[in-house]
Amino acid sequence: MALATFWFIVTAALWTGFFVLEGFDLGVGMLHTFVSREEPGRRAAINTIGPLWDGNEVWLIVAAAAMFAAFPAWYATMFSGFYPALILLLVGLIVRGVSFEFRGKSDNPRWIRTWDALLTTGSLLVPLLIGIALGDLLHGVPIDQSQEFTGGLGDLFSGYAVFAGITLVLLCLLHGATFITLKTTGEVHDRALWLARRIAPFTVLAVLVFQPWTHSVAGGGVLPDVLELVTMLAALAAGWLLAERHEGWAFVATTVVIATTILSFFADLYPRLMVSSTNPAFDLTVHNSASGAYALKVMSIVAIVFFPLVLAYQGWTYHVFRLRISAEQFDVPEAARD
């Protein structure tokens, strides 16, 4: 089924797009209280993603929709088995979105601190929980011959899955810190660069461990393949470029790291969609979980027509909001406060 394989590639591309674009949004959300001690600086950090975050989040919705439409058995087994974690993920997404809107509704310091804490927490939960869920797909969870999840909540937290979540958190932190350096000036820029340089060693180490571990869990041994080797080299390059203050190229490197991390994960997963730890014969695969040929054909036509339009629109949005932001833009004069 060539169309089933095509939709596996599309799904992998959508998850990659989500983490590349939403990755720096999540990083900014986690770091916005650390890049400045003052409210104007924090507002500047948040406003670097203000026009972008909700559009970037659409990639998550479309990725989940692609799983539902192209591989309904995969969607059903995963979403029912991972239900508690997915509820917590939804809470994180909702709290994060609400925080952007509500933190500026009052000048009360306690009000702002509350929403800052919720924004940071929500931004942390999203990559952590999605990383754990993706790790479970490859590491395996209890699935029976009826493609039903038979485990409990504890089965979702294997060592590999938890490390996958931590690795994605670190990647988002580094991606976000590097993005802030590109979009801000003054103290916010300097503190973001300082943070990026200190996050980089931990992120590089995590990537250097995660890639061989992923390949090993997939059954390919500890020696990385070409795509995983690119990921590791890009991570090392990102750390060096930040040390040399080449922020633009560092952001390119972090983009490559996140993209190839997700792509290499799905490459190791194929042709499986969800590994059964009960019996390999019960694995969900591209071939035993796909929708009918007609449905996949219609979906393919829709994707080919509309996907380029979405990319063009998002590219135009990034072009419009390409300028740097300074904390001084949000510094209210004393006369106005009175």
UniProtKB/TrEMBL annotation:
Its main location: membrane. The chain crosses the membrane at residues 6-35, 82-102, 114-137, 157-182, 194-214, 226-243, 250-271, 291-313. It is found in: Cell membrane. Pfam families: Cyt_bd_oxida_II (PF02322). Keywords: Cell membrane, Electron transport, Heme, Iron, Membrane, Metal-binding, Transmembrane, Transmembrane helix, Transport. It is a multi-pass membrane protein. Belongs to the cytochrome ubiquinol oxidase subunit 2 family. NCBIfam families: cydB (TIGR00203). This is Cytochrome d ubiquinol oxidase subunit II. It comes from Kitasatospora cinereorecta. The gene is cydB.
